[in-house]
Each structure stands twice: as C-alpha cells, then as structure tokens.
Amino acid sequence: MATVSILVPASDAQFIGRALLSAQHQTLDDIEILVGDDTPNAALEPLVARLGDPRVRYFHHGFQNERRNARALWASANGRYVKWLVGDDLLMPTSVERLVDALRQHPESALAFHGRVLIDADDSVIHTPPLLLKVGERGLVDRELLIKEMVAGLNNFLGELSNVMVDRMHVDEADVFSYRSMELDYLGDVATFLNLSRREPLVAVGGYWSMSRQPAGQVDLEARPDFSAGLYEWEVFVRGEAATGALPASVLAETARRLEQLYAQHAGRFPEIARFLANLPELTSSPAQSLFDGQRFRSDLSYARSAVAERLSSAVRGAPVRREKPGAAALPAEGAKAAAPAVVRRDATATLQHHPIRLVCATRCAQEQFLTDTALGRSLAALRTPTMPELLLFEKNSAGLPTVYNSAIGQAASNPAILVFVHDDVSITDYFWMDRVHDALAQFDVVGLAGNRRRVPQQPAWAFASVTATEFKWDAPAFLSGTVGHGRGFPCENVSYFGPAGVECKLLDGLMLIADSARLLEAGVRFDEQFQFDLYDMDFCRQVELKGLRMGTWPISVVHQSGGKFGTPGWRASYERYLRKYGE
C-alpha cells in the first residue's frame, strides 16, 4: 500500500500531461496517483493510458462537478497521506517528500502546506506571493491565527489544494470541503483549513514547492457560474466564527467594511450579492451569537445557494464552462493584495542541509515528449534514485539560452538551488553525478565538464586558440581539461579526453555549467542575452572571472550528441559581437 495518494481531479486535457509528469517525478517514490476524469466522454483516458505507469489509476467520474470528483477520489485512496494536485497545476519534485516529512515531525497535526507561485499557460511565473517562511524553515499555524488573518482579513494566505497534504489518520471526510455541515461551492479549501486546525496547528513548510496555474488572457471571472459563492462564503465563515466567539466582536466592524468593498464591486451583476450587501449592518448591530442563524441571513444564503446551483446546472446542460479549481479563493477587493500572516511559530529543528539540485533545460519538445524524445530526458528516466533532482524545463522553447538561464537565476532568488544549466542533447550516465556536483562546488564557484586553463586574445572557443577563414586551431593539450563522451547513446561512439579534471580554468564548455544560485545572485553574475547560443558560454566565463569567482572542471560522466556548430554564419556573427564587447 502506497504511503501517499496523489489525487488529481481533472476536467481539461490541455495541462493534465504536465501535471501528471510532475506527480510521477516526485523524490518520494512510495506513491499512488489517482486521476479523476470529470469529462462526460472520458476524454482524458487516452492521455493517462499513454503513461504506462502502474502507480497511476484512472477513474472516469463524469460528474462535471469538481467537489464530487474530488470526494470520489478521496474514497478510492489507499495512502495514509493525501496530496491533492488539481489537473492544471504542477508540483516541484520535492513537494510530497517535504510535506510527508513535516507531518511525520508533527504527528499530531492533520495538515501541512507549503508555498506556491502562480504561473500562466506557458509555465512562466506571473506572481510570487509573500514568502511565509524561508526555505528550510518549518512553522505552526494555529486556528487563532487562521481566524485573525484569514477569516477576518478575507485572505486565504495558505493557497489552494495543490499545495497542501493531509494525514487521513486525523481527518474525517466531513472535514473536507464543508463548514458546519454545509457543503461549500467555492471556498472548500478555506473550510478544510479551518476544520483541520481545530485539533492541532497546521504545519507550514518554507519555500515555494508547487505552481498554481491561472486563467490566460482577459478572463471574465464573473462569468463563472459559481463566482458569487466565492464572495458570500467569506461571510459564512465570518458569521460562523463570530457566533462561537472565536472571531472577537472588536474586529467585526473592520471585517464588515472589507465585505462591503468586496460586495460593492459585484452587487450590480448578482442579485444575491446585493441582498448580502444590504444586510451587512447586521454584523455589528446584532448579538454575535445570533449571527450565523439569523433569519434574514439564512434566507439570503438559501436564495444565493439556489442561484449558484441553477447556474452550475445550466453550465452542465449547455456549453462547457471552464471553472476555477475546487475550493479556490475568490479574488480580494480591487487593489487589495494578499499578505502573509504577521506571526508564524517557527520550528527551529527543521533546517535544510544544502540547496536542492535543479536541472535547468530548454528544449524544443513539449513536456510530454521530453522524457522519451531527448537524450537528457531518457537518461533522467533511467537514473531513478531515492533523491531525484528538481527539473526546471522550458518546453517548446524558441528563446536564446541566456534568456532562459537568466529566468532560472531570477526564480532562484526566492527558491535557492544548485543550478545545473544543461543542454537537452546531453545524456547523464553517472550514477553518482549528484554527489559529484556537491564535491565540485566545495572547490569551485562555477563548474563545467571541460575547459581551458588559460584564455588568449581573440580566442574563438574554449578549446580553440585561434581561427582563420577556413580553420580552427586547437589549443595546446597542456591547457585543456576534462572528459566528454560523444555519440547517440551509452556506450558512446568515442570519448574526448582533453586533460585532467578538477583543475581551475578560465573558460568552460557550456554543455553543462553548475553553480549555486545564491553565489551567482550575490556576485551579480548573469548571462548576456545578446548571445543567443553561440559564445554565450565564453561570455559567461568572462563575466564570472570579472566578478572574482573561481571556475573549474569536474569528472562527471556524460554523452553529448552534438560536437558544436563552429564556423556557421550565425556563429561568426556572434564571434564578431564577442570581440567588439571585449575590445579584441
């Protein structure tokens, strides 16, 4: 029986392949992946069947109802720990492992969560919420804090279902998606957080370890059939917590003002919201204990829920409507920004031993084909280890490598890692390559597999000392370092031994470059985006040298499919730009 059940409720084929790929490549391998296909015609079944992964189980539900789909998956799960992954979101490779570790360190808690970033249809980060805790830190969030920051502030700072995990030993099915025995249509995640914090505090894990996809373009959010529920369900929480005394009467006036701002933007379009807006003065004029069961509020709530149910039913009968993720929070009032809570109790026992290794790769392939159609993807699939590296993949890429690599450095500012910039036509054939990366960075700031111990004026590439119109002249063997295999697979067709590895160099081959993101950011080192591909590695090494960082080679076994395209018109244009830049 698997330790973790990853539940993937899905109703759209566009991103399901990427979501499942991120679930399959978790560093904790003891998992099962349950896919709930909510399309009426089982449209996702061929996509899931193509995976050929025995850990993946497919269920065609066809409810066209996110909550029912998620509940059906819950009933089929075998794992002690349940990790949701909404079908268009992505998990970083260590997401599951970090959350399981947090719950094992705090076995009394029912839920653990980590941060997430928001991405667009191209997997580009479009928003990074405030960081709750730094990478490596762990903290506890009690119910009092949730009520103060989340309920009173109408601010779901925890995120969506895709960045949480629950321990089913402490969770009843009624605790999920419901509030005070009421099934919610929109804010089921907030209800779940409040319910599970009644037992013990929730565990917060520092860092951003998942990605939540947002609708592309100018989307009319109000057109969603359940949109208004994402507004008035906040009032349900406010009244419920005030009635029990958990939400102090002293903050009700400010909370009522926030609700008024929220409702005022949408009352003209939704009659049910206009009714809630008209009754808001009751929050501060009636006794707190009567707020949840007040006759007028109950009447307004019944009217609103009926209106939403009718819209949802009409959407199912008519054209498909792309709805928000189950339990996703409604947008705050215009101009408001979600903020991290003021106080989280830190767990000083949780520290990160070292930054994770993150492969950074640009490929022309789609993500679904990367593992089968590229040398790097195939080698990673073969080298499955207990601790897998993270993979930051820029699929269907047409941008220059410096642009892609700079993006990875920028993302690492809030999520540090050892960055391994690598071409997709490189096969990693070293079972111990991750250990060697750590060993290498103990000696050098920037590491490559092959390089040159010197640099001469007008040098055209790391291995060549000069170039004419017709010939590239190799530098003397005494200055070269490293070993690289060449061919279409392993064993490779030939091995290029340039010289002893583990020595300091002035220039490195760009097929693989390794550096700690914190070191690059601290020194202000970036790739120059005027060099799309050719000579970007030469220029990068010059920048590293100018910043006073040490470069060197290290023995890591790889096979490179390409020998380089020196001398082409594009290469010569880049060479001329390089010479002009350095006055050579």
- Oligomeric form: single chain
Alpha carbon gap, first and last residue: 65 Å
Major sheet characteristics: 11 strands, mixed
* CATH class descriptor of the largest domain: Alpha Beta
Strand content: 15-25%
**Based on CA inertia axes, which overall geometry fits?**
elongated
Fraction of helical residues: 25-40%
* Number of structurally distinct domains: 3
Query: Total number of β-strand segments?
Result: 28
Number of helices: 18
Look at the structure and give the mean pLDDT: 88
Low-confidence stretches: 319-339, 348-353
Q: Could you state the CATH homologous superfamily of the largest domain?
A: Spore Coat Polysaccharide Biosynthesis Protein SpsA, Chain A
Structural class: alpha/beta
- Rounded radius of gyration (Å): 27 Å
Fold-level CATH name of the largest domain: Spore Coat Polysaccharide Biosynthesis Protein SpsA, Chain A
